[in-house]
Amino acid sequence: MSQESDAKNLIDAVRAGRLDRREFMMSALGLGLTVGTMGAVLQACSSDPKPAEPKPAGDPSTPAPAPAEKELGPIEGELHIYLWSDYIAEDTVPNFEKEFNCKVTVDTYESNEEMIAKVQTGASGYDLVCPSGYAVTVLKHLDLMEKLSKKYLPNYGNIAPIFDKTVFDPENAFTVPWQWGITGIAYRKDKLPAPPDSWALFQDPAHKGKLTMMDDMRDNIGAWLKFRGKSLNSVKPEDLAAAKADALLAKPNLKSYISAPVKAQLIAGDVFAAQLWNGDTMQAKVENANIEFAIPKEGGAIWCDSMVIPKGAKNVRAAHEFLNYVLRPEVGAAISTFTGYGSPNAKATASMPNAVAYPSAEQMKLLEYQEDLGEGTSAWDQLWTEIKSG
Ligand code: N2P
């Protein structure tokens, strides 16, 4: 390596806070850099413009300064995102790459549990992941998230009040809300005699082999709990036993347990009705106008997914830049226009002619937010294994 690139690496390390001045001098000497080069490097670092600091207190009208936030280095050249499938507009990443000169990879998953398992290894290599609310709580208990440095997120204020300081992140310390949505039934109106109004549809042998339910423990068992008038967050053994019996009653009618990828089968007409999320249903409807969405009379789930930075992420500044970028109204609007979900970004929603409206108080009576099951999680895991193998 040339002295120049050695010096550049060192500048990056000092700026990113990975090296203090003493460590810098030691490394520089070890690399055989000349005193002149070392001086130039230090000068370059000290003349690096720093992001604005919060205003000092003193003026009684000035709010108290926010607690010190982590100073981040310059934007890295890469960013690795782990996201639900079909959950971002086609131009979101290419436009970011161009503007920020940062190469982005996006891998996809189909359930929170799949994502958590990967993050839990501690070596996922991802800089951003997108848990649902209850999964944020799980990641928090496992201490698997980095705190956000808000000074790099000036667009955070675009978040709508209802998604600001959520129950799963009351201080807005870890999450940037991404999309919200509802779990219900996607169906082909040209294949069913009437719009489905109950989860009982999946227990009706009339449509055997043409039905699917989600390969997602929380949504699947949650639906059967709602079916019997129970909370979809219940951990009571008797509620779970009833949910298992209902799930097993439906199982012979199901073509498979499948989540977002069922869209292709709905479009083709191989599946007449599928437990699915509203936004993915809308994506399928773009391809086939016979596809509709219904919320069963017994109710369904409502959720909000957020972006978070997993502990140990390598490209933390790039992650912040990406989050601040998607918080721009036009970028947020493009994402929700593609996904068919609701945007938690008030300015994005205001700019969209066909934005998904947040449910009214009346509609909310049918819906319930998913919460962390705490110690009940292992009973659910066990039940889900029994249902799938039963
Ligand atoms: C993926 C939508 C995922 C939403 N297409 C699940 N919370």
Q: Which percent range fits the helix content? A: 25-40%
Name the shape in a single word: globular
Strand content: 15-25%
Q: Could you name the ranges where pLDDT drops below 50 across 5 or more consecutive residues?
A: 1-60
Q: Termini distance? A: 61 Å
**What's the number of structural domains?**
2
CATH superfamily of the largest domain: Periplasmic binding protein-like II
Mean pLDDT: 87
Q: What's the level 1 CATH class of the largest domain?
A: Alpha Beta
Number of strands: 12
Radius of gyration: 24 Å
Structural class: alpha/beta
Here the CATH topology of the largest domain equals D-Maltodextrin-Binding Protein, domain 2
Q: Which ligands, by name, code or SMILES, are bound?
A: pentane-1,5-diamine
Enumerate how many helices there are, as a single number: 15
Order of helices and strands: HHHEHEHEHEEEHHEHEHEEEHHHHEH
Give a short synopsis of this structure.
With 390 residues, the chain is α/β, with parallel strands linked by helices. It contains 15 helices and twelve strands.
Explain the overall architecture.
The protein is an alpha/beta fold and 390 residues long. It folds into two domains: 78-175 and 308-356, 3-Layer(aba) Sandwich (D-Maltodextrin-Binding Protein, domain 2), CATH 3.40.190.10; 181-302 and 366-389, Periplasmic binding protein-like II (D-Maltodextrin-Binding Protein, domain 2, 3-Layer(aba) Sandwich). Helix content is 38%, strand content 15%. The strands form three sheets. Strands 5, 6, 7, 8, 9, 10 and 12 form a seven-stranded mixed β-sheet that branches. It has a three-stranded parallel β-sheet with strand order 2-1-3. It has a two-stranded antiparallel ribbon with strand order 4-11. α1 runs antiparallel to α2 (21-30), α7 crosses α8 (237-250) and α8 (237-250) packs parallel to α15 (377-389). Mean pLDDT is 87; it is low at 1-60. The structure holds pentane-1,5-diamine. Pentane-1,5-diamine (N2P) binds next to β10.
